[in-house]
Structure formats: structure tokens, C-alpha cells
Amino acid sequence: MGPAVALVGVWWIGSIALWLWGMQTPLLLGLPPWIWGAIVWQLILSALLSWIGRRMVEAVRESHGA
Amino acid sequence: MALEAVLVVLGYLVLNLVVGLWAAARQRSGVEEYFLAGRRLSPLVLFFTMVATNFSAFFFLGFAGAGYRIGLSYYAMMALGTALVGSTFLFVGYPAWRLGRELGAVTPAELVGIRMQSTALRVLCAAVWLLFTVPYIAIQPIGAGYLLSQLTDNAVPYYAGAVLLSALVVGYVFLGGMRSVAWTDVLQGLLMIGVSFAALWFVAARWGGIEQANALLLSRDPSFFSAQGAGGFFTLPVWISYSLLWLLSVPMFPQMFVRFLAARNLEGLRLTAVLYPVVTAFLFLAPVLIGLWGHLELPPLGERESDQVLPMLLGKIAPEWFAALVGVGALAAFMSTMDSQLLVLSSLLTRDIYAVLRPRASLREQTWVGRILVVVLAIAGLAIAWAPPATLFAIATHAFSGFAALFPVVVCSLYARRPYPRSCIAAVIAGEGLLAGFYTGLVRPEWFGGFLPVVPVVGIAAAVMFVGMVIERRRVEQTA
Question: Cβ–Cβ of A19/B73 closer than 8 Å?
């Protein structure tokens, strides 16, 4: 659990760094680069939570099996 | 008002009632069945009920208004902050789900009380959850009533609208409890998501697409695309505060927490955690962009007017039936939050107050008390909505920080290997006490370097909790 919480913590710090970066122009497909960064960063979080969740489901199955 | 618009509103209300009654017909008897849908919410239903409950009408109207005033940085703040809430579905939701089943807990306060072996703590936590949720039983009908009145060109006056919508919600919550609430949330969630993207597509087409609309606005005022936002709204402390506010408060909303207890399995929590950041990444863009484009079409709006930018813009450029459909999406957002708050308030009063005072109350009796409380609370909400006191809104504005103050205690109750009841009680009193200091003006926000109250409030609660745990552990070791 500890490493998973640390990963999410790193993601949170990254989201603050993204705001500090805040690059406005040029617009890419209508949105500023830092907003695209925010979108991609959320998709990375989704993938991260998918991985952590799968590990948790497996751990529960193993503990039930044991 | 066009006939099509009336038909859209009516059609939605009837469909909502049909889904609620259909779900109620599938309900079995029992207190867990009524308040938690028998702990059998399937993964997809869990996801939609989480989304619909969390995203209130503020998502439509408030996001668009803030997008108009602040710009795209509002999207980033709300989306990044809310996406991170997904992680709590695993780290808070999973242990809550597991322990809820093991201990038979039906409410969050019950779970905390049983784990920390303290009825006093249970009642204290229930009191905090009640204090910050009760104002919403009046605020939600007020908002929904105004929206319905606006949608029908005042053919349905505000108060009649509030009564009508409350009666509809009470009807399916009374009969079907959590099962009806969750299934109507599926309908409401789908509607909110569908309508948001349809509105974005429709409004963007006015300027030839998102790229053209944003390029035009950028040439007029680049500050709407900056990280600080128009007028330098976001400073670093404010940004950090908001990114913590949602993370710490949303899982502590009692109506969200009970959904952890209602999940059928861990897979449901995992799916919700994975999809949440995807939803925030794309869905949150729609109302903020629409609000932003209000500058291209509408005359300058004041702060209060700007919260109406979405209906104003649609009223100007969309056919009446389409504007009504988007309005119905906002109505769905109101109702999906309102029914969940009504049910969770009823469960807190039934399980953590009534059943504590009357321990011999049977489960059947508790279910009926819960049902009656749903009706009583709705009537009380409407009575308050008739002439709402100013304190009601003041309490509601502090609700997020008030819920967040419980975060350290709830996490302790989920993870601690032994009970720390006194530390938990001290932490709740310290956190809520500091918040009361902010509320009364005894504590000044400027003392905390530009951070919002949530940061010091959770900080003091966590610090008191930690010190208390060390002291309690030492005492136990000395007596052992």
C-alpha cells in the first residue's frame, strides 16, 4: 500500500508542477499545451489506478485462496 | 415557451419516475437493502451513481460561470483535483467496503464508531455529517425549483417546482431506497454526460469548431488561457489548497462514502477509480469551454449573472428544445445529488441516533423509521426553503472543509490496528473547532499564508490525531 500511495503523491506533485509550467501558446488543436498536459496527466493517473487496483484485486484473491 | 421544451422536461420527469419505481419493485426487505441496495451495486451502476452523486448542478452552471470569469485554468484545477479523488476509491473505499461487510456497518459514522469502539465518537461524527449535509435538503430544492421555473418560462413557479421535484424524489427514495437512487443515477449520469458533449459540439459549431473559437478568444484576451487565470485568480497556495480540498472532502461526503459500503465487489471500486480521471479529463472541459465562449457572444456579465452564462448562451443560439434538454441535464444533476443526500441523512439519523437511543429497535422498524425520515426531511427542507436563513448558506460554504476535517479520523479507523477513540474525538473537535474559528471570524485566513481553511483545518486534525495516538499507545504499553 505504501508504494501505491507514494505513486499517487508523486502524481499530485506533478499536477502542481504542470500548473507552474502553464505554457499558454501556441494552441494545439484549440487548447493550450499545459491543458493538453493536464488531460494526459489524468489519463496517466487512470492507468496508474488501473494497475494499483488490479494488484489489490489479485492480493484479495490470493488471500482468499490461502 | 415552446411545446417541445415542455415535452422534454415532462418526458425526463416521467422517465425518472419509471426507472425509480422499476428499481423499487426489485427491492427486497431489510435495512441493508434499503440503505445500501443489499451491498450489491454492480460495477457500472456504482460508477454512474458515484459520478451523478458527486457532480451536482454546479457542474453545469457553476463550471460555466467560473469558466467565463477565470478561464481554462478553472478546468485544470477542477479536473486535476477531482481526478485524484479516484485514488481514494481504492485507498479509502476498499478498506471501508471490506470492513463494512465484516462489521455490518450501514453508515460511515457506524463504521468509525465500531472500529474505534466508541459510541461517543460515532455520535460525534454523525453530528458533523448531519450538520454539514442538512443545509442541502433546503438548498437543493431551492436550486431545482428555480431551474424548473426558468426552464418552463415561469409556467411552474419556483416554489411549486421545488415541491414537485421533492415529491418526485421522495416517491422513489421512499419506495426503493438506495436501489432506486442508484438506478435513477444511471439515467441522470448518462443524461449529464450526453448533454454536456452535445452542448459543447453545438456551441462550438457557432464559430466553426473549438480551434476557431479559442483562437478568436485568445486574440482578444490571452489571460483566459493562462495557468493563473483572468485577474490572477489562482496563486500557488490557492492552487495547492484546491487540489487538496477535493481529495480530502469528496470521499468524506456521507453520500459518497456509503457507496463504498454498497459496492458488490472490489472490481466495482477499481472500475470507478479508473474511469473517474477519464471522465474529469474530458467531461469537465465542456461546461468550462462553453462558459469561456460566452465572451464571444454575450455582453459583459457581472459575477452573479455569469453563473447563468450557459443557459443565456444556449437561449441565444440554440433551438428551444435543445436548450431545454441541456436544462434537463442540469435538473438531473440536482436531483441525483438531492436524492442521495436525503437517503444518507435518513440513514445517519436512523442508525446513529435512533438505533443508538433505542437499541432494541428491530431492523424492520429501522427501515420504516428511515422511510418516514425521508418524508419528514423533505418536508423540513421545503419549509426551510420557503424563507431560508442566511446561516444555512454560510454553513454550506464551509461544508467541504467540515467534511475534510474528518479525513484523518476516518483513515485512522480504517487502518489502525487498535482503537484510538480519545485521539479521534480530540481530532474531530480540533478540526471542526478551528473551522468554527474561521466561521466566526476569530481565526483569520491571512494567518495561513494564502492557503484556504481546508489546509490548516485538516493539518490541525491530523496533528492532534497523531500526538493523541502516541500518548494513547504509551499509556496502553505502560499498563500492559
Answer: yes
